Every structure is written in C-alpha cells, then in structure tokens.
C-alpha cells in the first residue's frame, strides 16, 4: 500500500529563530519542525564522528565500552515494540562491525541491532557531549528527575524500572536500515532528536488522525506502516494522511505531543534524543494518565468491590504508564512550589523586576496557572478520591536539600532562558524562613489532595499580587 503523504515538515534555521517564535509557532501549536545550525559546536559532533562522516565506533568501544545498554533487534517484534536485548557497548559495536559487510537490512538472518535509550548524560555527567538548545530547556521532566525520583514508593517498583526511568535523555546508535516502529511518545511528551551523524527518515501522523491507525476497538495501533497492513483489522489505515521529512546530519527535529511517528535510519546514524514536557503539554500527560487509569480499571473490573481495587489500579497504572496518580500529583506539588518560590523571590527582590512587564514572571505565572488547570481536572476525577494519597508538607519540602537543589537548577535554567541576573536561587531556604510560614501557608502547610493544592495556589497568586 502506498501512504498518502501530503506535506513536509518545515525546516528553519535555529540560529535565526527566537525562543518566543519557537513557542508561538511550534510548541504552542504542537507542530513539528526541523531546526538547523544548532549543533556545530557540540563535542559529540566532532568526537563521535570520523573524518568520513561515519560513526567513530572505535571511540565508543574504547571510552564507553563497558556501559550496559538496551539494544533493539529491529527484525523481531515483541508485543508492540521490537525485541530488546541487553549487552555492553563494546559487544554492540563488535556485532555492528561484524554485520556491516552485509547491506541487506537483516534479510540474510543477521540481526539488525539498534542501541536505544542509553542514559548517556546520567552515566557520563562530566563528558559534556552537547548542550541542550534554548528551545528545549523548559523541560520539567528531566529537571525534576535530576533531583527527585518519579516513584515515591520504591517498594512497589523493580530496581530495573527505576534505572530505566532515571531520566529521559538518550543516545541512539544504529546501522543503516535500523528503525523505530510507529508510536507516540512516553507520557505523550514532546521529544527532540539531533543527528550527530547519519540521516533519518520520519513519517508523522497528527493527533486528530491517530484513530486511523488503530484497530476498530481502539486497542492496538499499526506496528509498521510499510508492512502489509490488514484492512479488516485496521479498516481506516488507508485514509491516514502523513507528513514526512528527511533529517540530515546536524539537524534537530522537534516532535510534538501525541503525534504518531515511525523513523528509519537511512545511513549509519547516531542521535541524541530527549523526551520532555512543560506547561504547554502537561495536559497531554494527565489526559493519557487518566485514559490508562480507566484502561487499568477495566481489566480488573470484576474486583471493583474489593478494598484493594484502587490500589491495584494505581499499581498497574504505574507499571504501564511510568507513573501513577500519586507520583504525578507529588510532581505537580513540587513543581508548583518551586515555581512559586522562584517567583516570590523575584517579586520580593525590591525593584528588581516589575511583575507586569517581566517576561520571566509571566512565564512562572503561566506555569502555575497550568498546574492549577490540571489540578482542577484531577479534582473532578472520582477514581482519584480513594487511592490513599499521602500528604506533602510544604514547609518540610522547602527544608529538603533535594528540593532546594531542584529550585536552584530550575532557577539557573530559567535564568539562562530569560537572562535573569541578580537572583540567588540557592538562598531559597533562608528566604522562606520560619517567620513567614503563616504568611505562606495560612491554611496549613500540608497538601493532601487536589483541593489543598488549589487553595495553596490561589493564596500564592494573591501573595504575588496577581489574579488566578
Ligand atoms: O530515532 C529513532 O529511531 C526514534 C526516535 C523517536 O521516536 C523520538 O525521538 O521520538
């Protein structure tokens, strides 16, 4: 079957694009774009590539050979993904070199191996392979995971799972012919992906069309858009209208939330990929979580009358979606508190910034308002009421070193984006000292449920002197 391809992804010179224009045209409109000119000075683009433009495989064996990584066998499907193997980087490189003499994409029985989801930055924090372009700095997911765990209840998660969720900054490496099946990204996050070397072909389907690649029960999506897609199983597949593009070496692609995409490496390719979300797409994350929650509940419908029902649903949700309601709620509380603390600090630095005119202050307010919006949605969700939410004590959180470090890195990141100077974010602990507790939390510092967070946020808006 021939795909209906009716458009190309726009290509824009990233050096000539302002952050505000990126937000307006792509982030807020949830549209894909390829950005050029942003990787020229990356160490990865020099050290990881040989003179002939091919991946410098020897460097990976020599420098990072002992790292344990996940490798997809692109020729073998396992459920909705490719079969995964675990091996060291040097084993992967050896297999790559030994199969590179054949050029027929696994057809001769040799596996087509694709190293994916390597948490390179986490593993080698001192090896600065690249710097995240300003367009992608407002990344709540990775900023949070650098200082906190997503799962508050470690007993219910396997060690392996925790390692896999330690951050969402990855290196991908694969020979020509390796590929990624059709999918939308984890948490319905955004992603960005930079080609250090090699080229990729992308096929995109916008969210309003995604039902076309699902079966009639909306349970399973097409795995490979180029295999013989069964018309009786996927009756509307032929109606789907795709966007495509070729991403060249050094180019970065922005993948918007909820867009299904399939990706093929046209040459031996190394890429850097991040998944991320922020105030513009956080509602996608909650909507997905809610959908997956109802799905998890549906599977154990016959246990609905049991006391453990909600607990089981949440456990299954965490296993399937990467977080449960409680993880997401705690994430929102910490994020709200950090944004408030920074904004409070900015607005209370006498004469430093005029709230109404400050771009940065508007940005923190935007974050807080989006968090309130999601919290209002959470509040109206009945399943939420019975899932045993533990309290967070805001006063205690502010004293917690991980949280202080989190505010500090948030402050630094946003300073970079908005050229804030003169605000010392490491002073957060002393700024919000005990005398101010009654001012900060007149209704008590414990957050038990969405109502409490909304009360806190409304009070915070008043303190900062703005309408919620
Ligand atoms: O590069 C690939 O193979 C897949 C990347 C991807 O799906 C993404 O960045 O969202």
UniProtKB/TrEMBL annotation:
GO terms classed as biological process: regulation of gene expression
Superkingdom as given in the UniProt entry: Eukaryota
All residue ranges annotated as the JmjC domain in the record: 121-293
Keyword Metal-binding: yes
An annotated Gene Ontology molecular function: catalytic activity, acting on a protein
Needed co-factor(s): Fe(2+)
Record key words, sorted: Iron, Metal-binding, Oxidoreductase
SUPFAM superfamilies referenced in this protein's UniProt entry, alphabetically: Clavaminate synthase-like
PROSITE patterns linked: JMJC (PS51184)
Protein family (similarity comment): Belongs to the JARID1 histone demethylase family.
Protein name from the UniProt record: 2-oxoglutarate and iron-dependent oxygenase JMJD4
Native species: Salvia divinorum (Maria pastora)
């Amino acid at each position: 079957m021939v795909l209906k391809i009716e458009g190309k992804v726009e290509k824009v010179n990233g050096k000539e694009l302002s952050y505000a224009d990126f937000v307006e045209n792509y982030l807020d409109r949830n549209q894909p774009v390829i950005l050029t000119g942003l990787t020229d000075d990356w160490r990865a683009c020099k050290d990881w590539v040989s003179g002939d433009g091919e991946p410098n495989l020897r460097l990976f064996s020599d420098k990072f050979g002992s790292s344990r990584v996940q490798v997809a066998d692109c020729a073998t499907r396992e459920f909705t993904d490719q079969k995964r193997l675990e091996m060291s980087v040097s084993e992967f490189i050896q297999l790559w070199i030994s199969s590179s003499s054949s050029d027929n994409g696994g057809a001769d029985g040799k596996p087509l191996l694709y190293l994916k989801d390597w948490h390179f930055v986490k593993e080698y924090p001192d090896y600065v392979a690249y710097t995240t372009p300003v367009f992608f700095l407002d990344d709540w997911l990775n900023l949070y995971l650098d200082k906190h765990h997503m799962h508050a209840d470690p007993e219910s998660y396997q060690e392996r799972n925790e390692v896999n969720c330690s951050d969402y900054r990855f290196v991908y490496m694969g020979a020509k012919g390796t590929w990624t099946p059709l999918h939308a990204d984890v948490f319905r996050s955004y992603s960005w992906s930079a080609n250090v070397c090699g080229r990729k072909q992308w096929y995109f389907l916008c969210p309003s069309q995604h039902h076309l690649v699902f079966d009639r029960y909306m349970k399973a999506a097409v795995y490979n858009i180029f295999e013989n897609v069964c018309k009786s199983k996927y009756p509307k597949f032929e109606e789907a209208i795709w966007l495509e593009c070729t991403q060249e070496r050094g180019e970065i692609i922005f993948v918007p939330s909820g867009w299904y995409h399939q990706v093929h490496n046209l040459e031996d390719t190394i890429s850097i990929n991040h998944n991320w979300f922020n105030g513009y797409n956080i509602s996608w994350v909650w909507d997905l979580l809610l959908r997956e929650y109802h799905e998890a509940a549906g599977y154990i419908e016959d246990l609905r009358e049991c006391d453990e029902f909600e607990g089981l649903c949440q456990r299954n949700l965490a296993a399937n979606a990467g977080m449960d309601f409680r993880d997401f709620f705690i994430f929102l509380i910490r994020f709200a508190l950090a944004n408030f603390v920074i904004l409070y600090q900015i607005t209370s630095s006498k004469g430093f910034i005029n709230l109404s005119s400050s771009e940065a202050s508007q940005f923190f307010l935007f974050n807080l308002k989006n968090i309130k919006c999601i919290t209002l949605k959470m509040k109206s969700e009945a399943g939420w009421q019975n899932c045993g939410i533990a309290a967070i004590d805001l006063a205690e959180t502010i004293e917690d070193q991980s949280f202080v470090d989190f505010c500090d890195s948030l402050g630094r990141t946003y300073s970079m984006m908005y050229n804030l100077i003169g605000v010392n974010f490491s002073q957060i602990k002393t700024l919000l000292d005990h005398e101010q507790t009654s001012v900060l939390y007149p209704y008590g510092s414990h957050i038990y449920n969405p109502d409490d967070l909304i009360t806190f946020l409304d009070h915070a808006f008043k303190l900062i002197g703005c309408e919620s």
